[in-house]
Design a protein that fits this description.
Radius of gyration: 33 Å
Helix content: under 10%
Distance between the termini: 13 Å
Oligomer: single chain
Strand content: 35-45%
Number of strands: 47
Length: 622
């Protein structure tokens, strides 16, 4: 006489054979929520956004005024970061699209034809350095040696990005011999500034001044730039009038303005990718085997003096705390610090190459990425193949890690995979139970909204962005299949019972009744206000008839799907019985003798426990 009892249900351990699993582990665990030890479902997904372009690879929800949001989309791998600067109304963001670094904000992103992909307008991330030295001629009144000095002049471009002024690195210097007192230096030519996807609105002229220990460039004047050209019909910032289109510098050293701060503010290097936000206003990116950092809180400035290198090509970057994890084609590196001029670099003694940039994800606990040996985790005091207890190397490679996409959600690592013609998603728990399940979703890419923590995925199959685990009405249908129980002699289990929350089946009926009430209400209101505006049109109905910007009709929720639980019994690899269970009452099984037994549950109703036995007496004794 034998009984089989299941409770405290757990997830997948693919590296372990079906017969060698622990009794609580599963061969199949799809769309299951098992943290409580019961079999429950993930919530259903809800449609959020239909992509406009074919072949979208990256999605990002930009933030707008009053909590608004809008979906941006790109057809190539694109890295997007939020502004590290103070930003209360412009909602700036920065991105690297196929290695071309750009910037935009809420207003610019919507500046274009409706129905076209966002962002519709943008500027290049950096501000270009002027490509020519200024042209200057000295007019002298006293050429004596004691009234003679050698001067050097440079100029910079100033770009306007919303309310932000961004200054370029200076041009090459022009040298001129001039009077200390009297005379003037005349500038008669400034090259035309670039205009396409740049917004250069000013030009600043600087003069070199020798201090006690260093040479500094100090501001002489600033000029307005329109369509790339200096406007000579207007006075300068200091009120100086141009003379026949020429600017005269007659200012004494003590009259000069601020010191040039943008001496090393280079544009981001060509091909910069992998942008990530770091603390203290830093953004990091990479080119080849070089790691670059922007000037803190100045995303347009990328001094080459901050650049660090690794001994192998970089695949991608991740961040936890003040530490930047550099995932390479060989060993990972960490770079830590609070300012890009004082970063310390460490090469980790772990040969785990990153084989897929899009698999990199990170949270407060560390960085995870896909290697050919499994899912690697790097954190403070930890570096290991996180998935080793779950997957063998061969089993891991079956899921094609070179095309995996990853994201962190609610302390879980979501991992989209493709296995042959099948696409799905693993959910790896970080320090929780179950360690691993699958979810039926085929993500091209994933995105987690920073304000709400909601996770979104772009589906391979229909190009729609869904919010996952979100439906307030419907659940995803779960499937959980037990380990293979092998007995030394042939057994015939004759009865079984399922302990489940069968009252949950009534939930769908209740929701649909409420839905029908809303539909009936709308039909009634449509008849009542026939031939009138339903949307609160001005002067159409008396004041206080309905809410401003609202309407008389209520939103109709989606129809609730019927909920059920189905149990399937296997013996010696054959399906011997399937039953839709509606209550906790024990039921009979057809007679069948077998050595190997398995049980599968499918449906939506939460299951607490399951028992089957070779006799009803045994079953009732459980």
């Amino acid at each position: 006489m034998t009984t089989l009892s299941l409770s405290n249900f757990n997830g997948l351990v693919p590296r372990t054979g079906a017969a060698n699993l622990d009794a609580v582990n599963a061969q199949v665990a799809v769309n299951t929520r098992l943290q409580s030890g019961e079999i429950k479902s993930w919530k259903g997904k809800t449609e959020e956004y239909q992509t406009i372009q074919e072949g979208v690879q990256t999605i990002f929800k930009i933030e707008g005024p009053s909590g608004e949001g809008a979906w941006a989309e790109w057809t190539c791998d694109t890295d997007v970061v939020f502004s590290p600067m103070a930003d209360l109304k412009e909602h700036r963001f920065y991105y690297s699209e196929a290695g071309v670094c750009k910037k935009s904000n809420w207003t610019m992103a919507h500046d274009g034809l409706d129905g076209t992909p966002i962002p519709r307008n943008w500027l290049y991330l950096g501000v270009p350095r002027p490509n020519k030295a200024p042209h200057a001629t000295a007019t002298r009144t006293d050429t004596s040696p004691e009234n003679t000095e050698e001067r050097a002049y440079v100029y910079t471009y100033v770009s306007t990005f919303g309310d932000v002024k961004e200054e370029s690195a200076p041009s090459d210097a022009c040298n001129v011999t001039a009077d200390i007192v009297g005379g003037k230096v005349v500038f008669d030519e400034f090259p035309v500034a670039p205009t396409e996807h740049y917004n250069i609105t000013a030009l600043r002229l600087y003069r070199a001044v020798i201090g006690s220990s260093e040479i500094s460039y100090m501001l002489v004047d600033e000029f307005t730039v329109v369509k790339g050209e200096v406007v000579t019909s207007k006075r300068s910032l200091n009120g100086v009038r141009f003379e026949d289109g020429k600017y005269p510098d007659t200012r004494k050293t003590e009259q000069l303005g601020i010191v040039l701060e943008s001496m090393y503010y280079e544009e981001p290097p060509e091909g910069l990718r992998g942008l990530v936000n770091m603390p203290n206003g830093m953004i990091a990116g990479f080119v080849g085997n070089q790691v670059w950092f922007c000037e803190p809180y100045l995303p347009h400035a990328w001094p080459s003096t901050y650049m660090l290198t690794t001994d192998s090509q970089i695949v991608g970057l991740g961040v936890y705390g003040n530490t930047l994890v550099v995932c390479t084609e060989r060993q990972p590196f960490t770079i830590a610090g609070t300012h890009p001029s004082a970063m310390t670099q460490e090469k980790l003694p772990m040969l785990q190459p990153c084989i897929n940039k899009r698999s990199i994800a990170y949270d407060q606990y560390g960085v995870l990425y896909a290697s050919s040996n499994g899912l690697v985790v790097i954190a403070g005091g930890q570096m290991d193949v996180f998935s080793r207890p779950l997957f063998t190397r061969e089993g891991w490679l079956e899921y094609n890690p070179v095309v995996m996409v990853g994201s962190m959600y609610n302390n879980n690592y979501l991992c989209g995979y493709q296995q042959g013609n099948t696409a799905g998603m693993f959910v790896f728990a970080r320090g929780d139970t179950p360690a691993l399940i699958k979810v039926e979703f085929d993500p091209v890419c994933l995105f987690v909204e920073r304000v709400t923590g909601y996770v979104y995925g772009l589906s391979h199959s229909d190009g729609i962005v869904y919010r996952l685990d979100s439906s307030s009405t419907n659940l995803m249908g779960y499937t959980w299949k037990s380990k293979l129980f092998v007995y030394p002699r042939s057994l015939s289990f004759s009865c079984a019972k399922v302990d489940a929350e069968f009252d949950d089946k009534e939930t769908a009926l209740m929701l649909n009744k409420e839905r029908q009430k809303i539909i009936d209400h709308n039909l009634e209101q449509a008849q009542k206000y026939k031939d009138q505006c339903f949307l609160g049109c001005l002067n159409d109905v008396p004041v206080d008839t309905w809410t401003v910007n609202g309407g008389v009709l209520l939103d109709v929720p989606e129809e609730a799907q019927l909920r059920y639980v189905q149990v399937t019994f296997y013996s010696d690899d054959k399906v011997i019985y399937t039953k839709d269970v509606s209550d906790c009452v024990a039921f009979r099984l057809p007679p069948y003798n077998g050595y190997r037994w398995e049980v599968r549950f499918a449906g939506h109703v939460p299951i607490r426990a399951f028992q089957m036995a070779t006799s009803m007496v045994e079953l009732m004794g459980q």
